[in-house]
Design a protein that fits this description.
The protein is an alpha/beta fold. Helices cover 43% and strands 19% of the residues. The longest helix has 29 residues. Bound molecules: 5'-O-[(R)-(carboxyoxy)(hydroxy)phosphoryl]adenosine and zinc ion. The site of 5'-O-[(R)-(carboxyoxy)(hydroxy)phosphoryl]adenosine has 21 residues, from helix 5 and helix 6.
Length: 328
């Protein structure tokens, strides 16, 4: 399988055998391009995808020591994401398919984040609770099997990674803010501030991070901040956001009787999150994505594409559209 990922600000191409074995996974991050803007600039992102994609396809094939005619399936993330960015990957996949006669298949990027942890381990016993924690999504899903999910909780405003990025901007840190906040928080005392994530009435598994971000903004406004104040704020924000995720994940797994929890998305790179999960959910089997499979990558796209193709027995047609939003 050749996987192609261009949903947001990483151009990525991978070659994966049998849905699991990563023969190559090349990721060209655009973080440098967007750093000064505090977030992704769609037009810049598209131009970079166009420049990078073809050379990355060559590089991924070369690294895997394969030629295009040895590929059986082309899998591409066709949503959710930025429309221009999605169109670049999808058009490349369709063109390759047309030129080679190989099938192509569109994959849901968010679903692929959940599959990333599964492909790093063995397929868990279903039903399993899935938690997607990324820059664009914060969702809790009941995974009935690969390809069959029930959404049980989601954010009503900002995604958790987005909240990390916005708070980083408030603290004067560059994009992407998650790793920066994590690092700064190590030197901070979270008890110096009291930040609370949102609770949604009668929807205990839904998230709200926008008020949390605003409370950081107001707590720091018009103050001469010392490096220590900033570290304390980073630690308090990080704790509030992550404990909320862990508590709601625990509640979801209890309500739905799930012994296994699968985490996916860029925020799962956070070591403090992994420590909180280990200490608060010691009785659960927890699957995390392997290094290289948490942040956006094309190996998870190729891996998931394999399962869907096997199940369906055919690929997609050339009229498959890019979708900025897709339900799981
Ligand atoms: O999954 P991903 O690569 O892209 C999306 O699909 O959105 O996630 C990127 C997000 C960014 O918001 C980034 O700040 C966040 O993941 N992130 C982190 C960490 N590493 C990346 N957030 C918290 N702690 C981290 N160590
Ligand atoms: Zn992603």
């Amino acid at each position: 399988m050749l996987g192609i990922e261009t949903t947001c600000d990483e151009t990525a191409v991978a070659v994966v055998r049998d849905g699991r074995e990563v023969l190559s996974s090349i990721i060209a991050s655009q973080a440098d391009l967007h750093a000064e803007f505090g977030g992704v600039v769609p037009e810049l992102s598209c131009r970079r995808h166009v420049d990078c994609l073809i050379p990355l396809i060559d590089e991924a094939l070369n690294t895997a020591n394969l030629s295009l005619d040895q590929i059986d399936l082309i899998a591409v993330a066709h949503g959710p994401g930025l429309i221009g960015a999605l169109l670049i990957g999808l058009t490349a996949a369709k063109t390759l398919s047309l030129a080679t006669g190989k099938p192509f298949i569109g994959v849901n990027h968010v679903e692929a984040h959940l599959y990333a942890a599964i492909m790093s381990h063995k397929v868990p016993k279903f039903p399993t609770l899935g938690a997607v924690l990324s820059g664009g999504h914060t969702s809790l899903v009941l995974m009935n099997e690969i390809g069959n999910y029930t959404l049980i909780g989601e954010t009503v405003d900002d995604a958790i990674g987005e909240a990390f990025d916005k708070v980083a901007k408030i603290l004067g840190l560059p994009y992407p803010g998650g790793p920066q906040i994590e690092q700064l928080a190590r030197h901070g005392n979270r008890h110096q501030f009291s930040f609370k994530p949102g609770k949604i009435k009668e929807r205990p598994l839904d998230f709200s991070f926008s008020g949390l971000k605003t409370s950081v903004l107001y707590a720091l406004k018009n103050k001469d901040l010392t490096p220590q104040n900033k570290a304390d704020a980073a630690a308090a924000f990080q704790y509030a956001a992550l404990i909320d995720v862990v508590e709601k994940t625990a509640l979801g797994s209890k309500q739905h009787n799930c012994q296994t929890i699968v985490f996916g998305g860029g925020v799962t790179n956070n070591r403090y999150l992994r420590e909180l999960v280990a200490s608060l959910l010691p009785e659960k089997t927890v699957l995390w994505p392997s290094p290289g499979l948490s942040l956006d990558n094309a190996a998870m796209i190729a891996g998931l594409g394999y399962h869907h193709y096997l199940k369906r027995g055919e690929g997609d047609h050339l009229d498959l559209e890019a979708q900025t939003r897709i339900a799981l």
